[in-house]
Amino acid sequence: MAKLELLDLSGNVTIQALSSFSGTAGLKTLVLNGCVGLEHVGPLAPSLESFSFDVGYSISTNDSAKVSKISLAGCVDLKSFLLRGALQILEELNLSGTAIKKLDLNNQVVEVPRLKKVFLMGCNQLRVISWWKGSWKLEVLCIDTHGRRGAPNSVSSPFPPFQDKTHDGYVVAGDARFIQSLFDSNGGLKTKSLYLDLHVPHSISRSPSSSSNSVLAKPLCYSDDIVFRLESLSAYGNQIPWSPPSDLHVEIGEGIKLTDVPSSMRAPLEFALEWCRVERCLGLQAVFAASGSNECPYYFPKLEKFWASDLLAAHCIWSKGVIHDDSYSFGALQIIHVHNCPRIKFVLPFSSQITLPSLETLHITHCGDLRQVFPWDSSRLPEEYQKEVAVKEFPALKHIHLHDLPNLQEICAAKMYAPMLETVKLRGCWSLRRLPAVGRGQRPIADCEKECWERLRWEGLDTDHHPSLYQPHHSSYYKKRLLRGTVLR
What we know:
This protein is mainly beta and 489 residues long. The protein has two domains: 1-161; 171-489, no CATH class. The chain contains four helices and 33 strands. It has helices at residues 152-155, 202-205, 383-387, 450-455; strands spanning 6-8, 29-31, 40-41, 50-54, 69-71, 80-86, 92-94, 102-104, 110-111, 117-121, 128-130, 140-144, 169-173, 194-198, 232-235, 238-241, 249-252, 269-270, 275-279, 286-288, 298-299, 305-309, 316-318, 335-339, 361-365, 372-374, 391-393, 399-403, 410-412, 415-417, 423-427, 445-448, 471-474. It has a 16-stranded parallel β-sheet. The protein has a five-stranded parallel β-sheet with strand order 1-2-4-6-9, with no helix packed on it. Strand 12, helix 1 and strand 13 (169-173) form a beta-alpha-beta unit. The longest helix has 6 residues, at 450-455. The N and C termini lie far apart (86 Å). The model is unreliable at 149-156, 202-251 and 253-268 (pLDDT under 50). Pfam families: LRR_RPS2. This is Disease resistance protein At4g27190-like leucine-rich repeats domain-containing protein.
Protein backbone atom coordinates (compact mmCIF):
# COMPACT_ATOMS: atom_id res chain seq x y z
CA MET A 1 0.00 0.00 0.00
CA ALA A 2 2.92 2.32 -0.71
CA LYS A 3 0.76 4.52 -3.01
CA LEU A 4 -2.20 4.82 -0.66
CA GLU A 5 -2.76 8.54 0.10
CA LEU A 6 -6.32 8.64 1.48
CA LEU A 7 -7.75 6.20 4.01
CA ASP A 8 -11.31 6.70 5.26
CA LEU A 9 -12.51 4.20 7.86
CA SER A 10 -15.53 6.21 8.98
CA GLY A 11 -18.22 4.18 10.71
CA ASN A 12 -16.06 1.12 11.37
CA VAL A 13 -16.98 0.29 14.97
CA THR A 14 -15.18 -3.06 15.09
CA ILE A 15 -11.63 -2.02 14.27
CA GLN A 16 -9.47 -1.90 17.42
CA ALA A 17 -5.95 -1.17 16.13
CA LEU A 18 -4.21 0.52 13.20
CA SER A 19 -0.92 -1.34 13.34
CA SER A 20 -1.28 -2.61 9.77
CA PHE A 21 -1.33 0.95 8.44
CA SER A 22 1.73 2.28 10.26
CA GLY A 23 4.03 1.31 7.42
CA THR A 24 2.03 3.05 4.68
CA ALA A 25 4.70 5.48 3.58
CA GLY A 26 2.58 7.58 1.23
CA LEU A 27 -0.49 8.01 3.43
CA LYS A 28 -1.50 11.69 3.62
CA THR A 29 -5.09 11.73 4.90
CA LEU A 30 -6.59 9.50 7.60
CA VAL A 31 -10.26 9.73 8.61
CA LEU A 32 -11.40 7.70 11.65
CA ASN A 33 -14.80 9.27 12.28
CA GLY A 34 -17.04 6.93 14.23
CA CYS A 35 -14.32 4.36 14.93
CA VAL A 36 -15.32 4.03 18.57
CA GLY A 37 -13.74 0.59 18.96
CA LEU A 38 -10.17 1.83 18.56
CA GLU A 39 -8.15 1.44 21.73
CA HIS A 40 -4.90 3.04 20.51
CA VAL A 41 -4.07 5.30 17.59
CA GLY A 42 -0.51 5.44 16.30
CA PRO A 43 2.22 5.37 15.40
CA LEU A 44 1.37 6.41 11.86
CA ALA A 45 3.20 7.17 8.63
CA PRO A 46 5.44 10.30 8.75
CA SER A 47 3.88 11.48 5.49
CA LEU A 48 0.47 12.04 7.13
CA GLU A 49 -0.87 15.56 6.52
CA SER A 50 -4.48 15.41 7.75
CA PHE A 51 -6.08 13.48 10.63
CA SER A 52 -9.73 13.44 11.69
CA PHE A 53 -11.22 11.51 14.62
CA ASP A 54 -14.87 12.33 15.37
CA VAL A 55 -16.49 9.79 17.72
CA GLY A 56 -19.68 11.73 18.38
CA TYR A 57 -21.53 11.81 21.70
CA SER A 58 -22.92 8.43 22.72
CA ILE A 59 -25.40 7.93 25.56
CA SER A 60 -24.66 4.22 25.93
CA THR A 61 -21.33 3.19 27.43
CA ASN A 62 -21.19 0.28 25.00
CA ASP A 63 -21.08 2.68 22.07
CA SER A 64 -18.64 5.16 23.65
CA ALA A 65 -15.09 5.59 22.38
CA LYS A 66 -12.54 3.11 23.76
CA VAL A 67 -9.39 4.96 22.77
CA SER A 68 -6.98 5.71 25.65
CA LYS A 69 -3.91 6.88 23.73
CA ILE A 70 -3.36 8.85 20.55
CA SER A 71 0.18 9.25 19.25
CA LEU A 72 0.98 10.96 15.96
CA ALA A 73 4.53 11.73 17.00
CA GLY A 74 6.90 11.98 14.06
CA CYS A 75 4.25 12.95 11.48
CA VAL A 76 6.32 15.91 10.38
CA ASP A 77 3.88 17.04 7.68
CA LEU A 78 0.74 16.86 9.82
CA LYS A 79 -1.01 20.25 9.66
CA SER A 80 -4.70 19.40 10.02
CA PHE A 81 -5.65 17.68 13.27
CA LEU A 82 -9.24 17.27 14.50
CA LEU A 83 -10.56 15.59 17.62
CA ARG A 84 -14.29 15.74 18.19
CA GLY A 85 -16.83 14.08 20.40
CA ALA A 86 -16.71 12.33 23.76
CA LEU A 87 -13.34 10.70 24.37
CA GLN A 88 -14.17 9.73 27.91
CA ILE A 89 -11.15 7.49 28.63
CA LEU A 90 -8.44 9.21 26.57
CA GLU A 91 -5.42 9.60 28.86
CA GLU A 92 -2.50 10.50 26.57
CA LEU A 93 -2.13 12.71 23.49
CA ASN A 94 1.24 12.91 21.73
CA LEU A 95 1.62 15.23 18.73
CA SER A 96 5.38 15.76 19.05
CA GLY A 97 7.25 16.63 15.90
CA THR A 98 4.16 17.64 13.91
CA ALA A 99 3.43 20.84 12.00
CA ILE A 100 0.10 21.71 13.65
CA LYS A 101 -0.57 25.36 14.39
CA LYS A 102 -3.56 24.98 16.68
CA LEU A 103 -4.71 22.37 19.18
CA ASP A 104 -8.38 22.63 20.13
CA LEU A 105 -9.38 20.79 23.32
CA ASN A 106 -12.33 23.02 24.15
CA ASN A 107 -15.40 21.40 25.67
CA GLN A 108 -17.52 22.59 22.76
CA VAL A 109 -15.39 20.52 20.39
CA VAL A 110 -14.15 17.53 22.37
CA GLU A 111 -14.64 16.06 25.85
CA VAL A 112 -11.48 14.63 27.45
CA PRO A 113 -12.23 14.44 31.18
CA ARG A 114 -9.51 11.83 31.86
CA LEU A 115 -6.72 13.30 29.77
CA LYS A 116 -3.53 13.22 31.87
CA LYS A 117 -0.62 13.66 29.48
CA VAL A 118 -0.08 15.99 26.51
CA PHE A 119 3.17 16.02 24.52
CA LEU A 120 3.91 18.72 21.93
CA MET A 121 7.68 18.55 21.71
CA GLY A 122 9.25 19.95 18.53
CA CYS A 123 6.02 21.57 17.29
CA ASN A 124 7.67 24.58 15.64
CA GLN A 125 4.47 25.88 14.06
CA LEU A 126 2.31 25.68 17.20
CA ARG A 127 0.71 29.03 18.01
CA VAL A 128 -2.51 28.44 19.95
CA ILE A 129 -3.93 25.90 22.40
CA SER A 130 -7.58 26.05 23.42
CA TRP A 131 -8.28 24.24 26.69
CA TRP A 132 -11.41 22.78 28.23
CA LYS A 133 -13.38 24.51 30.95
CA GLY A 134 -13.00 22.65 34.20
CA SER A 135 -10.91 22.35 37.32
CA TRP A 136 -9.13 19.08 36.49
CA LYS A 137 -5.45 19.40 35.60
CA LEU A 138 -2.91 17.52 33.52
CA GLU A 139 -0.30 15.37 35.21
CA VAL A 140 2.22 15.96 32.40
CA LEU A 141 2.42 18.79 29.85
CA CYS A 142 5.48 19.02 27.60
CA ILE A 143 5.68 21.73 24.92
CA ASP A 144 8.73 22.84 22.94
CA THR A 145 8.25 25.08 19.91
CA HIS A 146 12.01 25.24 19.33
CA GLY A 147 12.84 21.55 18.96
CA ARG A 148 13.77 20.15 15.56
CA ARG A 149 10.73 18.42 14.09
CA GLY A 150 11.15 14.70 13.87
CA ALA A 151 14.16 14.72 16.17
CA PRO A 152 14.66 11.57 18.22
CA ASN A 153 14.05 13.38 21.48
CA SER A 154 10.72 14.58 20.18
CA VAL A 155 9.45 11.19 19.06
CA SER A 156 11.00 8.25 20.84
CA SER A 157 11.05 10.05 24.16
CA PRO A 158 8.35 12.73 24.56
CA PHE A 159 9.89 14.08 27.76
CA PRO A 160 12.33 17.02 27.56
CA PRO A 161 15.95 15.96 28.17
CA PHE A 162 16.38 18.09 31.30
CA GLN A 163 12.91 17.97 32.80
CA ASP A 164 12.94 17.23 36.50
CA LYS A 165 10.19 15.72 38.59
CA THR A 166 9.50 19.01 40.32
CA HIS A 167 7.23 20.36 37.59
CA ASP A 168 4.15 18.93 35.91
CA GLY A 169 4.41 21.32 33.00
CA TYR A 170 7.38 22.13 30.77
CA VAL A 171 7.09 24.79 28.05
CA VAL A 172 9.74 26.33 25.78
CA ALA A 173 8.57 29.04 23.38
CA GLY A 174 10.03 31.89 21.36
CA ASP A 175 6.98 34.15 21.33
CA ALA A 176 5.71 35.69 24.55
CA ARG A 177 2.18 35.63 23.17
CA PHE A 178 2.21 31.87 23.64
CA ILE A 179 1.79 32.48 27.38
CA GLN A 180 -1.86 33.22 26.70
CA SER A 181 -2.32 29.65 25.46
CA LEU A 182 -1.25 28.21 28.80
CA PHE A 183 -4.41 29.41 30.55
CA ASP A 184 -8.04 28.47 30.13
CA SER A 185 -10.88 30.96 29.78
CA ASN A 186 -11.05 31.30 33.57
CA GLY A 187 -7.38 32.25 33.83
CA GLY A 188 -6.25 28.96 35.36
CA LEU A 189 -3.29 26.80 34.42
CA LYS A 190 -3.83 23.21 33.33
CA THR A 191 -0.94 21.94 35.48
CA LYS A 192 -0.20 22.34 39.16
CA SER A 193 3.34 23.52 38.44
CA LEU A 194 4.96 24.95 35.34
CA TYR A 195 8.41 25.54 33.88
CA LEU A 196 8.18 28.23 31.19
CA ASP A 197 11.27 29.19 29.20
CA LEU A 198 10.86 32.13 26.83
CA HIS A 199 13.78 32.68 24.49
CA VAL A 200 14.76 32.78 20.85
CA PRO A 201 17.60 30.45 19.81
CA HIS A 202 20.79 32.07 18.54
CA SER A 203 20.16 30.88 15.00
CA ILE A 204 16.78 32.64 15.03
CA SER A 205 17.39 35.74 17.14
CA ARG A 206 20.36 36.78 15.01
CA SER A 207 18.46 36.45 11.75
CA PRO A 208 17.06 39.79 10.50
CA SER A 209 14.17 38.06 8.72
CA SER A 210 12.86 36.54 11.95
CA SER A 211 12.83 39.65 14.08
CA SER A 212 9.12 40.17 13.58
CA ASN A 213 8.34 36.81 15.13
CA SER A 214 9.88 37.73 18.47
CA VAL A 215 8.22 41.14 18.90
CA LEU A 216 5.20 41.22 21.14
CA ALA A 217 2.33 42.75 19.20
CA LYS A 218 0.34 43.78 22.25
CA PRO A 219 1.14 44.33 25.93
CA LEU A 220 1.73 41.14 27.88
CA CYS A 221 -0.27 40.69 31.08
CA TYR A 222 1.73 38.87 33.71
CA SER A 223 -0.14 36.35 35.84
CA ASP A 224 0.32 35.38 39.45
CA ASP A 225 0.34 31.75 38.30
CA ILE A 226 3.66 32.21 36.48
CA VAL A 227 6.85 32.35 38.48
CA PHE A 228 10.29 33.13 37.14
CA ARG A 229 13.22 30.80 37.78
CA LEU A 230 17.01 30.86 37.99
CA GLU A 231 19.02 27.72 38.67
CA SER A 232 22.56 29.08 38.51
CA LEU A 233 24.49 32.04 37.21
CA SER A 234 28.11 32.83 36.49
CA ALA A 235 29.49 36.11 37.74
CA TYR A 236 33.11 36.99 37.01
CA GLY A 237 34.06 33.32 36.69
CA ASN A 238 32.51 32.28 40.01
CA GLN A 239 29.64 29.83 39.83
CA ILE A 240 26.91 30.77 42.25
CA PRO A 241 24.71 27.77 43.22
CA TRP A 242 20.97 28.18 43.31
CA SER A 243 18.84 25.40 44.72
CA PRO A 244 16.01 24.37 42.36
CA PRO A 245 12.60 25.91 42.98
CA SER A 246 9.66 23.75 43.98
CA ASP A 247 6.87 25.70 42.33
CA LEU A 248 5.96 27.47 39.13
CA HIS A 249 8.62 29.45 37.32
CA VAL A 250 9.58 31.16 34.07
CA GLU A 251 12.76 32.15 32.29
CA ILE A 252 12.70 35.05 29.85
CA GLY A 253 15.73 35.17 27.60
CA GLU A 254 17.40 36.32 24.44
CA GLY A 255 15.26 37.62 21.61
CA ILE A 256 12.08 38.25 23.56
CA LYS A 257 10.80 41.82 23.47
CA LEU A 258 8.15 42.71 26.05
CA THR A 259 6.23 45.92 26.49
CA ASP A 260 4.63 47.45 29.56
CA VAL A 261 2.55 45.30 31.89
CA PRO A 262 -1.01 46.64 32.06
CA SER A 263 -3.81 45.63 34.35
CA SER A 264 -7.46 46.56 34.48
CA MET A 265 -7.81 45.58 38.13
CA ARG A 266 -8.04 48.14 40.90
CA ALA A 267 -7.28 46.03 43.99
CA PRO A 268 -3.63 45.20 44.82
CA LEU A 269 -2.48 42.36 42.58
CA GLU A 270 -0.42 39.66 44.28
CA PHE A 271 2.28 37.96 42.21
CA ALA A 272 3.17 34.42 43.27
CA LEU A 273 6.65 34.92 41.83
CA GLU A 274 9.38 33.06 43.68
CA TRP A 275 12.27 33.17 41.19
CA CYS A 276 12.72 35.78 38.47
CA ARG A 277 15.28 35.72 35.68
CA VAL A 278 15.13 38.18 32.79
CA GLU A 279 18.03 38.54 30.37
CA ARG A 280 18.90 39.77 26.87
CA CYS A 281 15.46 41.31 26.26
CA LEU A 282 16.68 44.15 24.08
CA GLY A 283 13.37 46.02 23.81
CA LEU A 284 12.32 45.79 27.45
CA GLN A 285 11.81 49.21 29.08
CA ALA A 286 10.97 47.94 32.56
CA VAL A 287 10.47 44.45 33.91
CA PHE A 288 7.42 45.48 35.93
CA ALA A 289 5.89 48.60 34.44
CA ALA A 290 2.51 50.27 34.49
CA SER A 291 0.47 51.50 31.58
CA GLY A 292 -0.77 55.06 31.63
CA SER A 293 -4.18 54.05 32.99
CA ASN A 294 -2.98 51.46 35.48
CA GLU A 295 -4.23 51.97 39.01
CA CYS A 296 -3.52 48.49 40.27
CA PRO A 297 -0.47 48.22 42.56
CA TYR A 298 1.56 45.02 42.63
CA TYR A 299 3.15 43.19 45.52
CA PHE A 300 5.51 40.23 45.56
CA PRO A 301 5.32 38.54 48.97
CA LYS A 302 6.87 35.25 47.73
CA LEU A 303 9.67 36.55 45.53
CA GLU A 304 13.01 35.24 46.83
CA LYS A 305 15.59 35.77 44.10
CA PHE A 306 15.75 38.27 41.26
CA TRP A 307 18.24 38.31 38.38
CA ALA A 308 18.38 40.71 35.42
CA SER A 309 21.13 40.99 32.82
CA ASP A 310 21.75 42.56 29.43
CA LEU A 311 18.60 44.68 29.37
CA LEU A 312 20.06 47.32 27.10
CA ALA A 313 16.96 49.54 26.88
CA ALA A 314 15.59 49.18 30.42
CA HIS A 315 15.47 52.31 32.57
CA CYS A 316 14.41 50.48 35.75
CA ILE A 317 13.32 47.12 37.12
CA TRP A 318 10.18 48.18 38.97
CA SER A 319 8.60 51.39 37.73
CA LYS A 320 7.50 54.06 40.14
CA GLY A 321 3.86 53.93 41.10
CA VAL A 322 3.31 50.19 40.56
CA ILE A 323 4.26 48.72 43.96
CA HIS A 324 1.76 48.32 46.77
CA ASP A 325 2.89 50.35 49.78
CA ASP A 326 3.04 47.55 52.32
CA SER A 327 5.74 46.03 54.52
CA TYR A 328 4.97 42.58 53.04
CA SER A 329 5.35 43.60 49.40
CA PHE A 330 8.88 42.13 49.30
CA GLY A 331 8.94 40.19 52.54
CA ALA A 332 10.76 37.14 51.12
CA LEU A 333 13.24 38.81 48.73
CA GLN A 334 16.74 37.53 49.55
CA ILE A 335 18.95 38.24 46.54
CA ILE A 336 19.05 40.99 43.91
CA HIS A 337 21.44 40.64 40.95
CA VAL A 338 21.53 43.21 38.16
CA HIS A 339 24.22 42.98 35.48
CA ASN A 340 24.98 45.00 32.35
CA CYS A 341 21.90 47.20 32.18
CA PRO A 342 23.62 50.39 30.97
CA ARG A 343 20.56 52.69 30.93
CA ILE A 344 18.99 51.67 34.20
CA LYS A 345 18.47 54.59 36.60
CA PHE A 346 17.15 52.69 39.62
CA VAL A 347 16.06 49.20 40.67
CA LEU A 348 13.27 49.33 43.24
CA PRO A 349 11.52 52.51 44.43
CA PHE A 350 10.69 52.77 48.13
CA SER A 351 7.65 54.30 49.78
CA SER A 352 6.82 54.78 53.44
CA GLN A 353 5.98 51.13 54.28
CA ILE A 354 8.07 49.13 51.80
CA THR A 355 11.02 47.31 53.40
CA LEU A 356 13.32 44.41 52.51
CA PRO A 357 13.45 42.40 55.74
CA SER A 358 14.93 39.26 54.12
CA LEU A 359 17.42 40.79 51.67
CA GLU A 360 20.86 39.17 52.16
CA THR A 361 22.78 39.98 48.97
CA LEU A 362 22.80 43.04 46.74
CA HIS A 363 24.93 42.48 43.61
CA ILE A 364 24.94 45.10 40.85
CA THR A 365 27.56 45.39 38.10
CA HIS A 366 28.14 47.37 34.89
CA CYS A 367 25.16 49.71 35.05
CA GLY A 368 26.68 53.01 33.95
CA ASP A 369 23.58 55.23 34.38
CA LEU A 370 22.51 53.89 37.77
CA ARG A 371 21.97 56.78 40.21
CA GLN A 372 20.19 55.09 43.10
CA VAL A 373 19.31 51.48 43.82
CA PHE A 374 16.36 52.26 46.10
CA PRO A 375 15.05 55.79 45.40
CA TRP A 376 11.93 57.30 46.86
CA ASP A 377 8.73 56.64 44.92
CA SER A 378 7.78 60.25 44.25
CA SER A 379 4.42 59.21 42.81
CA ARG A 380 3.30 57.71 46.15
CA LEU A 381 5.16 59.78 48.74
CA PRO A 382 4.54 63.43 49.62
CA GLU A 383 7.54 65.67 49.21
CA GLU A 384 7.50 66.47 52.93
CA TYR A 385 8.10 62.80 53.79
CA GLN A 386 11.01 62.54 51.40
CA LYS A 387 12.70 65.48 53.07
CA GLU A 388 12.39 63.97 56.52
CA VAL A 389 15.29 62.06 58.04
CA ALA A 390 13.92 58.58 57.26
CA VAL A 391 15.80 55.36 58.06
CA LYS A 392 15.23 52.04 56.32
CA GLU A 393 16.43 48.96 58.18
CA PHE A 394 17.90 45.98 56.32
CA PRO A 395 18.01 43.42 59.15
CA ALA A 396 19.30 40.48 57.05
CA LEU A 397 21.64 42.26 54.61
CA LYS A 398 25.09 40.62 54.65
CA HIS A 399 26.77 41.27 51.30
CA ILE A 400 26.94 44.30 49.03
CA HIS A 401 28.83 44.03 45.73
CA LEU A 402 28.83 47.09 43.47
CA HIS A 403 31.07 47.09 40.40
CA ASP A 404 31.51 49.66 37.61
CA LEU A 405 28.75 52.05 38.67
CA PRO A 406 30.40 55.42 38.03
CA ASN A 407 27.21 57.49 38.51
CA LEU A 408 25.90 55.75 41.62
CA GLN A 409 25.39 58.45 44.25
CA GLU A 410 23.72 56.43 46.99
CA ILE A 411 22.39 52.94 47.52
CA CYS A 412 19.20 54.08 49.19
CA ALA A 413 17.51 57.48 49.27
CA ALA A 414 16.73 56.84 52.92
CA LYS A 415 19.47 56.24 55.46
CA MET A 416 20.34 52.55 55.64
CA TYR A 417 20.84 50.53 58.81
CA ALA A 418 22.30 47.03 58.26
CA PRO A 419 23.31 45.48 61.60
CA MET A 420 24.23 42.09 60.04
CA LEU A 421 26.42 43.46 57.24
CA GLU A 422 29.56 41.36 56.64
CA THR A 423 31.16 42.50 53.37
CA VAL A 424 31.07 45.50 51.09
CA LYS A 425 32.93 45.30 47.79
CA LEU A 426 33.15 48.41 45.64
CA ARG A 427 34.93 48.87 42.31
CA GLY A 428 34.51 51.86 40.06
CA CYS A 429 31.83 53.56 42.19
CA TRP A 430 33.47 56.98 42.19
CA SER A 431 30.31 59.00 42.94
CA LEU A 432 29.18 56.95 45.95
CA ARG A 433 29.21 58.99 49.15
CA ARG A 434 27.52 56.85 51.78
CA LEU A 435 27.61 53.32 53.18
CA PRO A 436 25.00 51.82 55.54
CA ALA A 437 25.12 52.36 59.27
CA VAL A 438 26.09 49.13 61.03
CA GLY A 439 25.90 47.61 64.49
CA ARG A 440 28.62 47.60 67.14
CA GLY A 441 29.40 43.90 66.77
CA GLN A 442 31.77 42.39 64.21
CA ARG A 443 33.05 45.02 61.84
CA PRO A 444 32.14 44.41 58.18
CA ILE A 445 34.94 44.35 55.61
CA ALA A 446 34.88 47.26 53.15
CA ASP A 447 36.92 46.30 50.08
CA CYS A 448 37.24 49.32 47.79
CA GLU A 449 39.68 51.72 46.17
CA LYS A 450 41.43 54.04 48.57
CA GLU A 451 40.16 57.16 46.84
CA CYS A 452 36.57 55.89 47.01
CA TRP A 453 36.94 55.25 50.75
CA GLU A 454 38.31 58.72 51.37
CA ARG A 455 35.33 60.34 49.64
CA LEU A 456 32.71 58.64 51.79
CA ARG A 457 30.77 60.80 54.23
CA TRP A 458 29.98 59.81 57.82
CA GLU A 459 27.59 61.02 60.52
CA GLY A 460 29.29 59.78 63.66
CA LEU A 461 29.42 57.00 66.23
CA ASP A 462 26.20 58.09 67.89
CA THR A 463 24.30 56.90 64.79
CA ASP A 464 26.49 53.82 64.23
CA HIS A 465 27.77 55.47 61.07
CA HIS A 466 31.51 55.86 61.41
CA PRO A 467 34.56 54.54 59.49
CA SER A 468 35.90 52.87 62.64
CA LEU A 469 32.97 50.43 62.50
CA TYR A 470 34.30 49.03 59.18
CA GLN A 471 37.48 47.16 58.26
CA PRO A 472 38.73 48.95 55.13
CA HIS A 473 40.70 46.88 52.62
CA HIS A 474 42.18 48.68 49.63
CA SER A 475 43.38 47.01 46.48
CA SER A 476 47.00 47.42 45.43
CA TYR A 477 45.93 49.66 42.59
CA TYR A 478 43.36 52.41 42.55
CA LYS A 479 42.36 55.36 40.48
CA LYS A 480 44.91 58.19 40.60
CA ARG A 481 44.15 61.78 39.76
CA LEU A 482 46.08 62.98 36.73
CA LEU A 483 47.23 66.59 36.42
CA ARG A 484 45.37 68.67 33.93
CA GLY A 485 47.22 69.00 30.69
CA THR A 486 49.24 65.84 31.24
CA VAL A 487 50.77 64.66 28.00
CA LEU A 488 51.56 61.00 27.50
CA ARG A 489 54.84 60.53 25.65
